[in-house]
Amino acid sequence: MKYLSLIRFQNLLVMVLIQYLLRYSIMVPAYGKENVLGDSYFASLVLSMILIAAGGYVINDYFDIQTDTTNENVIVGRRIKRRIALILHALLSSSGVLLGFYIAYKIDYILLGAFLTLASYILWEYSLRLKRFLFVGNLIVAVLTALFVISLSAYEMLPRFNAAESRYPFIVVCIYTAFAFISSLMNEIIKDLRTVEGDVKFKIKTLPSVWGIEKTKEFVKWLSVLSAFMIVAISTYVFERELMTLTYALLLLIGPLFLLNIWIYKAKVNADYERISKLIKLIIFAGILSLCFFIR
Question: Which sequence spans correspond to the domains of the chain?
Answer without folding.
Answer: 133-296
